[in-house]
Predict the structure.
Amino acid sequence: MDIKAFKMDGLGNDFVIIDRRKEDVSLSKEQIIKIGNRNNVGFDQIIFIEKKINDAFPIKIFNPDGVEVGACGNGSRCVAYLISKENNQKKIKLKANNRILETEILDEKMVKINMGLTKFEESKDIPLQEGLNPRKVSIDFLEKEYGFGYCVNVGNPHIVFFVKDCEKVDIKKIGPKIENHHFFPERVNVTFAEVADDYENIKVNVWERGAGKTKACGTAACATVVVGYLNGLTERACNVHFKEGSLEIFSDMGDCHVYMTGPVSDIKEITLKI
């Protein structure tokens, strides 16, 4: 069976996008895992666009391990750009896991998104093991070298550690250990962040839940600025830098929303052979 799809990326964070508005395509977990294999097509997330409900396009997002997730910032920006090309719309609303994501096409291939409400007050918000404080999470094998982690939910769960040199962190070694730690009942995305002296520029090293080390991660960038600003470690508006470029993040503590602006790639049509 051949399935028409699209391949896009945001700063190297790459996605397969399937439009289910015109053709009802269903994939099993095993098929998603097969497509996600880098020896096949490969992706950081696969995203399905559903038929419009009211004024928003529902999307469903899956990691390469075949597990559905609640948010993907860069992927959502790519989907918004793809839909905008249909009738030159500048503002697109998406719905991911009951969150309304408002997007705006600013310039050619630059897309801004309101990632919605951030949660960080209680352990159930993340979710985190009951009784733990999201703003000060100590993991025994990390505390001596990296100190405390800060947790936030930006549509999916994140923990962020602030370090002097994020590139020295062996994320492939310790990332899976943190992701699957018993503190996190739904597992967790992991970021090690390095803040410049101006408090406005941040380098990150990211391990994504269910995907591994990725070239970029929009929700990780959002999570880093939210907890950074909350704890006096960053400004509320920052540039978060990845290998292939940067994202502009603004954390609005007035309404607890976080905004992300950045580039998306060209749209490439592909055929998936199932």
Notes: The chain has two domains: 2-110+264-273, 117-261. The chain is about 20% helix and 40% strand. Helices lie at 29-36, 73-87, 143-146, 171-179, 218-230.
